[in-house]
Amino acid sequence: MTPLLNDLRYRLRALFRRDTMDREMDAEFRFHLDKEVEKHVRAGVPPDEARRLARASFGTFEGTRDETRDARGLMWLEQMVHDVRYSLRGLAARPMFTGGVVLTLALGIGANATMFGIMDRMLFRAPPFLRDHGTVHRLYNHYMLNGESRIERNLAFPVYLDFLRTSEATEAVAAFQTRELPVGEGEDTREMSVTVASASYFSLFDARPALGRFFDASDDSVPAGQDVVVLGHGYWQSRFGGRTDVIGQRLRVGRTPATIIGVAPEGFVGLSDQGVPAVYLPITAFAFSMRGPAYPRGYGWSWLELAVRRKPDVSIAALEADLTASYIASFRRAAAIAPNVGTLETVRPRVTVGPVQLARGPQAGRDSRVVTWIAGVAFIVLLIACANVANLQLSRAISRQREVAVRLALGVSRGRLVRQLLTESLCLAILGGTTGLLVARWGSVGLRSFFFNAEESLSVVTDVRTLVFAGVATTLVALLTGLVPALQAGSGDLAAALKSGAREGNYRRSRTRTALLVLQATLSVALLVGAGLFVRSLRNVRDFRMGYDTERLLFATVNFRGVRLSDEEQSGLASRLLSAAREVPGVEKLTLAASVPFWSNEGRGLWVPGVDSVQTRGRFILQAGSTDYFATTGTRILRGRAFGESDPEGGAHVIVVSEGMAQAIWPGEDALGKCVRISEPTAPCATVIGVAEEVRIRLLVDDREHAYYVPAWQLGEPIYPQVLVRISGDRAAVAEALRRRLQRELPGASYATVVPMNSLTDPQQRSWRFGATMFVAFGALALVLAAIGLYSLIAYDVAQRTRELGVRMALGASVPDVMGLVVRGGLRLVTVGLVLGAGLALWGSKWMEDLMFRQSPRDPMVFGMVTILLFAVALIATAGPAYRAARVDPNVALRSD
To answer: Which end of the chain is more exposed for a tag (fewer CB within 10 A), N or C?
Structure first.
C-alpha cells in the first residue's frame, strides 16, 4: 500500500508542482553530466571532448526531460494543455471566424437544451420527492358507453374505498384532485390551485414537512375528517412571509375554515398537473363540505384521481388484473344501489395503469406530441448548425494546408496533428455550449408560459440533467464538426501541399463541403414546410368560428363558499345579478347560462319519436339561458327562430338544435317542427323552433359533439348563477366594474369571478400556437444558417477561382457572364436541396396530419412559398460573391500567386 501511495503522491506533485520538479530534474541532470565530464578529464581527455563524450552518453536534456515526463504518465495532460492554449490563441487571432462559429453552435445547442428541459419535465422526470417512481402508477378506468369505448381517470370516492379494502397487489392507494378553490377571506380571497388528497397521498413521497406535519389517517377519517390544511412552500413564503408562527392559525379554503398544521418542503408539487398547489386539504373534509355525509356512498360522483404503489414482487399485468377485479366488485355494489348504471356485459369495466407523467399515459394530449416534434426540429437545427460549422472548418483546413504540411515535414505525427485539430473543435464547441446554456436560459423563460405554471422552476443552468445533456451534445458537436476537417487536413500529398500556390493548384470544389451545403438546404426546406403548415393551422384556428363571439363575451360566476340558498333564494339572486349587471357601463346584453363552453357542461337523456338510441348518434350538450341568450352569445340562427319573449314561462316547450345535431338525428329531413323529449321519455314534447350554427363546447376537433338550447324556465329548476355578458369598450375595465357590482349582491362569504370568454377558449389553441412559434423560429434560424453556408461556400469558391475568372474575363467574358456563372452554381446546389427537402417533407407529412387543424400537410401553396423563399435567399447569398467575382482585374488575377 505504501508504494502505491508514494507513487500517487509523486504523480500529484508532478501535476501541481511541475515547474519545481523540472528545476530539480534540471539540477540533477547537470550534476550527473558534470560528474561524467570530470571522470573523462581525470582519464586525460581534453575538457571540450570530455563534455562532448558526456553529452553523447547522457543524450540531450530535452529528450531526457520528455522521457521523465512520460514516466510520470502525465505527458498526455501536458500535451492537452498545450493544445488548448494553442487553439485558444489561434481562435483569438480570428475573432470573426470564432464569433460566427460560437454563435452558430450556441443557437443549435441552446435550442436543444431548452427543448430537452421541456421534454424531460413533461415525459421523463418523476415529480420531486416521489419514492421508487417506477412502482407508482396512475389509474385509468375503461368502459363502454352507447357502444363507444371510453377512458377516464376520474373515479368516485366509494370506488377508492373499495380499492383500499379489496386490492391485494398494492402497497398504497392514494386519492387526490387538484382544482381551483378560493383561499383566504374578504379582499384577500384568491382562487388558487388546491390539492385535496387522502392521507396516504404523502406516503408516496420521501418528503418531510418544512414546518409542522402532514395530515394523517386521523385527520382524513370518514365521513367528516378534520378541518386542517398544509400550506405549499411558495404560498407560505408569499402570503405569510415564511413565518414559523403560522402553525395553529386559521385559513379558509373553499367552504372550510381550516387550521394550519404544516408546510410542505420547497419544490414539493405532489402529482399535480394543474400548477403548484397553494395548499393541501384532507379529501374527507373537502367532500363533506361539498356533499354532506352521503358522499361515501355516492358512486355517481366521479371526481377523484387515483395513484397506487404496487408491491415489489407484482408485475404491471398482475396489478391491472387485481385492480380490475376490485373495480368489477365495486361496479356490482354501485349497480345494486343504482340499477341504471348498466350491466357488466354492456359496460365492461376494467382498469389499466400508466406512468405518473400524464404526457406518457393513454390520455396524452396534443401538447406532448407537438413538443416531441419540436424537439426533433431542434435536433435538425443542430445538425444544420453542425454542417455549417463543419463547412467553415473545412474551408479553414484547406487554407491551412501549407501550415499543416510544414508541421508534418518537421516531424509532427498525423495522429498528433489530428488530436490538436480536434482540440480546437472541442474548444469551439465548449464556447458554443456555454453560450448555448445562456440562450437556453433565456428561451426557457419564454417557453415556460406555454406548458408550466409560473411558479414552477425551469432553470437550465442549475438543472443537472440538462447540464449533462448539454455536455453530451457539446462533445458530439465537437466530433461532428471537427473530425472530417481534421482527418482531411492530416491527409493528402505532403510535397504538393508544400509547393502549392495559386499558379500551381487547379481549382476543385470539395465534395464534402458541397454535400454539407445540400444537407443544410434539404433540412431547411423540411423545417420551412413544417413552419408554413403550422402557421396556416394557427391561422385556421384563429379564423375558426367557435359559434359565439369570444372577443366580446365575459363570463361571470358565483362561488357560494358554503352559503346555502333555497331554490327560491337562488332564483331571486339570479334575477338580482342580472339587474345589477345591466347597470354596469359597457354591458350590452346578458343571459343566464346553464352550461358554459370549456367550463361547465351538462348532458341529459334525449328521446325522439321514431328514432332509436339517440345517444349513439353523438354527444349532445344542454345549453339553457334567458330570453337574450342568442343575442348575447352571438350564435347565429340558420333556420327558424330563437326562443325569446314570445316563449313565456309556462308556455309550450321549445328547443333550438345545432345544425350538426339536426343532421345526426334527422338526416335528410327538416328538423323544424320535430319533437324532442328531454330528461325523461315521458317529459313534455319540446318542439324544434330553430336550427343554430355549430358551436365548440369542449374540444375544437370533436365533430360528434353538438349543442341544443332551451329556455331556462323549461328546466323546472333554478340555474346556478352563471352569467354571460356581451360588452363594448375596454374588456378588463368592464370585467372589474362588473365583478365589483355583482359582489355587492352576494350573501355571506360568497364572491364573484368575472373572466373574458377567450381566457377559456385560448388554451385550446396552445399546441398550434406553440408549434407555429417554434417551427417559424427554428425554420428561420435554419434558413439563415443555410444562407450563411451557401455564402461561405460560394465566396470561398470565388476566392479559389480568382485566376480562372481572370482568364475568362481576359478572353472576353462579360460581367453578366461571370456573375451568372457564380449565381447558377449556387442555385444548382439549392435546387438539389429543394427537391430532396420537399421529398423529405412529403414523406414526413403522414405523421404530421393529426397535428394540423383543417390543413392538408401537402398544401401546394406552402411548398410553393418555401420554394420562392429559398430561391430568394439563395440569390441574396450568392449576390455578394458574384459581384466580387465580376470585379476581378484580369491583370492582377493572372499575376497572382
So the answer is: N
